[in-house]
Structure formats: C-alpha cells, structure tokens
Amino acid sequence: MAALLLLGITGVAACRVAGTDGVTPVPQLLAFLPWLLVPTSLGLLLTLLSRWWPGLFWGTAVLAVLGWFTVPHGYGGAPTGAPLAELRVLTSNVEFGGGAPSLVPQIRHWKPDLVFVEECEYTCQATLKKETDYPYRTAVVAGGSTGSLLLSRFPLRATDGVPGTMGMPGAVADVDGHPVRLQLAHPMPPLPGQVALWRRELGRLRDFAAADTRTPTVLAGDFNASQDHAAFRRILAAGDLRDSARLSGAARTASWPAPTAAVFGTQIDHVLVSPDFSASGARFLRLSHTDHRALLVDITLHQQRP
User: Which end of the chain has fewer CB within 10 Å, C or N?
Assistant: First the structure.
C-alpha cells in the first residue's frame, strides 16, 4: 500500500519539478499540492512500521520536494519609483450570479476602485448597476457562467478582451493620467476531458500578458489554476507579473472551495500585477451563495524607472 501511495504522489511531484501539468488526474491534484504532504507522511509512516527502508528514503525525498514547492520562492524587491496612485482591487466569482447580493455590502464597505466579477449573469449585472455607484464599466453580457463584469472608478476604454468559453472583458483605465491595462480572467476549469481547453485558454491569457510588458497591468479573476500549475506560471513569466496575494504574504490562503477554505482548499482566484505595482493587505472575503471567496487587495502604482 505504501508503494502505491508513494508512486502516485511521486508522479504528481515529478510533473511539478518538470514544469508540466501532465494529464488527468495530475492537473487536478496539482491544485492541492501542499495537501499531498498528508498522504506522503502517511506513506512514510507505513514504510517505517513495515521497516521498508528503501521506501523510507523514497518517501523522505518526495516529502522534501513537496515541502520545497509549498514554500513560496522568488519575486525580488518592491518597486523603487515614487508612488503615483493607490488602488483597491476586488475580484469575485459569484457562481452564476448567486453571490451578487452578498457582494454588494462588501463593495460598499471596502470601496474598491476596481471590481472584477466572474459568472455575473444578467441579474447580477443589473443588481450591481442598481446597488453600486461605479461610473465606468465594461462587460460580457450573457447568462450563466459566461457573463462577466468589470467596474471602475477610473475612466475606461474597452478593449477586445480575451476570447474564451466564458466572458473575459478587458479595458485600459486612466488612473490619474496613467494608462493601466485591465483584464478579467476566467478560463475553463481543468475538468477531465477538458484539460486541453483549460490549457489553451490559459495560453490566451499568457498571450495577453506578453503583448505589452511596458504598460502597467492588472490581470485579475478566477484563473481555475494555482501557482503549482505550469500553465499559470507561464502567464507570470510571459508578462513579468506578480501575484498580489503572494506579495502580501498570503500565497497559500485558499479561495476555493469557500465552504472549506478555512481548513482545506486552494488559491485559484488571483490579482496579478506588473512590476510597477506594490501590494499589501490581501483579504479573502466570505460571501454567501458562491463557492469562491472574494479577494481584496491594495496595490500602489509606482513611477517606472527609465
């Protein structure tokens, strides 16, 4: 039993080391990589009890690999340029619009400058238009999980967004005279039989990130991917982007599934920012009638170095 347990976990760990998401069930298991420490520890205990010494060394090596990747690494220092503008950003998947009523009081309380709302269908968009006072917005108006909405206190120029099965609108915001690229992210999840589609839509977000690395950028939403997915890390690398929750010291705080996120889950909701931004104060907010926790973070735009 210990051998079978360690063999399966070794396959997932090997994909993480190799920088690939593999095939089902590897992408699904990679989302919960830190939690694989639990069955690995169980495998180690079984090898110890059975006095299977090669297995003990094997399990120890797998445990070390998982531990290494569980601890955040990388990201250099904060921007050194003078601060130009402070923004509060919120992203929330409201699950077919069901969480919209509970999102409204959070918006009123925290007063974010930018709000990215995934799975915001017709009723959700009408609710947020009526109950909030954002002067600027761009949206994909559709039902079910396809609708999405971007709200802003800053003037917006809508862009083509990123094509996908679910709506991913985009815009360029005028933040106190400084252009900032905004893009909502909501690729398909890596369900069995749909991993290729998930990888393809994350690839389109990577192309967006890579298209302009000089203009300040905020790429936020439900990525259906964690930092342990190679396809997600390629987005970071292509646009030289940083994860604001990680910058805020909350790299492993779970956002999904919301009912168990306090004790078990994974972070698939992200606010990614270009190196022009610093970030602090990430908060994960519990909403009702949605399986995601909302992510709120404060970011500061800094003057670019020559």
Answer: C
